[in-house]
Write a structure and sequence with these properties.
This protein is of the alpha+beta class. The protein has five helices and eight strands. The protein has a six-stranded mixed beta sheet. A hairpin with an 8-residue loop joins strand 5 (about 125-130) and strand 6. It is globular.
Amino acid sequence: MVDLTRMLAPSFTLRELAGADDPRWRAEQLAGLLVMPAHGPRDRVVDRLEVLARTILQPIRDHIGRPVRVNSGYRSPAKNAATPGSSTSSQHMFGEAADIAVPGYTDAQLRDLADWIGMSGAFPFGQVIFEDARPGSEGGAWIHVSLGAPYRAASRCGERWTWTPAAGYRRIR
């Protein structure tokens, strides 16, 4: 049994990161939280979500001093496959990534937050991607953040990217 009210960090519950509120995916999402992925530490997906909440999401929340909305946290393999644009090796499937937004933030403020995440050195991360679904308009952007080593190869940690529908992914040096 999974307790969705479990606090993963002071400002984040398992419900926010579990992706189990959609009835189409609920059973699969809940079952997936107990899986122990083969790569990285031998932790259940729910335990990885807790690491994500404590080491990345809570520091972001503390830095900005306002709520952070998790648009997408854990995704079962089937839900991930049904999510347009998702990678077949997405860290979302292992409880190691979240797509976030900040209610009330403009897209420019989200871009600044993504830059802070990527350059501040406040915490280690795997990837930070500023994703702008509708460049030139407000309200379509979000930030993808993921855990770094030992969940992701050390050589692939600290990656900073942007994404737009027109240009796709572009790495920031």
